[in-house]
Amino acid sequence: MSTSRPQTRIQKKNKAAILEAALSVFSRHGFRGATLDQIANEAGLSKPNLLYYFPSKVSMHQTLLSNLLHRWLDPLIAIDPEGEPVEEVLAYVLRKLEMARLFPRESRLFANEIVQGAPNFMDQIEGELKVLVDEKAALFTSWMETGSLAKSDPYHLIFSIWATTQHYADYDAQVRIILRPQEDTHFADAAIYLETLFRRMLTPVPGLK
Fold it and tell me: What is the DSSP string of the chain?
């Protein structure tokens, strides 16, 4: 679709509806399992109308991933180098858990892409995401060297935070079947558990190097 003219209200509405439908379909079926017909049907639009806004399934998928990346990076960006190290990392853990609660479809979209080898997202992973992770890993290392944070591998620390928080989105059905929570009450329990777990891991032990 040409971007030379400002979009009308109807065009903006249709484009938003398509992306919402694409997110729903991709998060359920993955990129390979999703079809344009499924997305068009969920958006309530004809397939030709769909293709007027997005020329292919790939373009929709890449748009969603691009939008998601900025949302996904914000909690990591928010770690304050001037803050108290243990509390800053714990706050990051809780922000990631809250994202799992609020944006489960987006988390599954990202997970599905990574499982497939990131064919539509490799540039962003090698670029903006890696740069930010390297930056925060260096920050964590500096905190560990000053004794403000218990020593561990900073990259695996970040990976473990991702694994323990995004699990509640990516494996939502399994979690709910096992716990049978009332709506999202299990997230409060998860927050208490994860804060306790990571606080014990991150808090330096006096005299231990």
Answer: ---SSPPPHHHHHHHHHHHHHHHHHHHHHHHHH--HHHHHHHHTS-HHHHHHH-SSHHHHHHHHHHHHHHHHHHHHHT--TTS-HHHHHHHHHHHHHHHHHH-HHHHHHHHHHHHTT-TTTHHHIIIIIHHHHHHHHHHHHHHHHTTSS----HHHHHHHHHHHHHHHHHTHHHHHHHH--STTHHHHHHHHHHHHHHHHHHSPPTT--
